[in-house]
């Protein structure tokens, strides 16, 4: 229980349908997830409360467990704060949990890594699947996709698989700890885990792997792109709706 008058740092986890929002980060139109949460916090605390997320997701990208924090005085316990946050929130956004965190916790800077997954559907997806996958019309050679994925695992400079417009980084080296492929029937799933991701890195890697599966690129071409550190038109960016932020690691 929080003592009256004492400001605490609150760590929260939320899930959202990216199709309903213009991304995570605050936007002029006020339709970002951050905007919606901050409006609700203003209603609760009668003042502006700044939300800090673990990182931004683009418009259309989904989250199963996005983490954010804020500082506020609340005397009624974490579960009541979660319920207050959830109350009157629009459909497509769920506050899954809230807990008190140490003062030095930061949703972004305390993170040790993230897990994303990307959903692929082969052929024409139905209206209930389309908003949550990339419907690829050509058959994919999963064997060559697996070969290319193996070349991407590990610690590399992923500059060739990022996009302009991201926050300036000191380094484009990342440790891709995991890149797993599961496929059954018409469905495929790529799971990525790394110590951090560059802007549109997962969507760029997915686009390259799909190009390999379609025969437009060979696994050796992906390895050459990685070494080149140069973004080229051959690297397509997979559409946002197939991407899910699964977990932030602390």
Structural account:
- The chain has 250 residues and is of the alpha+beta class.
- Helices cover 23% and strands 31% of the residues.
- The protein contains five helices and ten strands, in the order βαββαβββαβββααβ.
- It has helices at residues 33-45, 78-86, 142-152, 201-214, 219-228; strands at residues 7-16, 52-53, 62-73, 93-101, 113-122, 134-136, 154-157, 173-184, 187-194, 243-249.
- Strands 1, 2, 3, 4, 5, 6, 7, 8, 9 and 10 form a ten-stranded mixed sheet that branches.
What key phrases describe this protein's structure?
single chain, 250 residues, alpha+beta, Alpha-Beta Plaits, 10-stranded mixed β-sheet, 5 helices, 31% strand
Unreliable spans are none
Describe the main β-sheet briefly: 10 strands, mixed
CATH topology of the largest domain: Alpha-Beta Plaits
Structural class by sheet pairing and helices: alpha+beta
Summarize the amount of helix as a percent range: 10-25%
What's this, in brief?
It contains five helices and ten strands. It has 250 residues and is of the alpha+beta class. Strands 1, 2, 3, 4, 5, 6, 7, 8, 9 and 10 form a ten-stranded mixed beta sheet that branches.
Write the layout of secondary structure elements.
Elements: E1 7-16, H1 33-45, E2 52-53, E3 62-73, H2 78-86, E4 93-101, E5 113-122, E6 134-136, H3 142-152, E7 154-157, E8 173-184, E9 187-194, H4 201-214, H5 219-228, E10 243-249
Parallel strand pairs: 3-10, 5-6
Antiparallel strand pairs: 1-3, 1-4, 2-3, 5-9, 5-10, 7-8, 8-9
Helix pairs in contact: 3-4, 3-5
């Amino acid at each position: 229980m929080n003592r009256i008058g004492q400001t605490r740092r609150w760590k929260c986890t939320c899930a959202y349908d990216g199709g309903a929002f213009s991304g995570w980060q605050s936007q002029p139109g006020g339709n970002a997830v951050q905007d919606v949460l901050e409006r609700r916090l203003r209603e609760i605390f009668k003042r502006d409360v700044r939300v800090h997320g673990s990182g931004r997701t683009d418009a259309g990208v989904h989250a199963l467990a996005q983490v954010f924090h804020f500082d506020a005085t609340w005397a009624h316990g974490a579960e009541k704060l979660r319920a207050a946050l959830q109350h009157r929130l629009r459909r497509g956004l769920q506050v899954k949990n809230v807990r008190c965190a140490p003062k030095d916790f930061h949703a972004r800077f305390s993170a040790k890594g993230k897990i994303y997954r990307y959903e692929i559907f082969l052929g024409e997806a139905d209206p209930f699947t389309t908003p949550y996958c990339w419907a690829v019309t050509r058959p994919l050679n999963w064997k060559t996709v697996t070969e290319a994925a193996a070349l991407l695992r590990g610690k590399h400079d992923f500059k060739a698989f990022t996009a302009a417009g991201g926050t300036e980084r000191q380094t484009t080296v990342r440790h891709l700890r995991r890149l797993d492929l599961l496929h059954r029937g018409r469905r495929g799933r790529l799971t990525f885990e790394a110590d951090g991701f560059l802007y549109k890195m997962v969507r760029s890697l997915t686009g390259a792997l799909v190009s390999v599966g379609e025969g437009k690129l060979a696994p050796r071409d992906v390895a050459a792109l990685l070494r080149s550190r140069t973004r080229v038109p051959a690297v397509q960016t997979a559409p946002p709706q197939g991407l899910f932020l699964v977990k932030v690691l602390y």
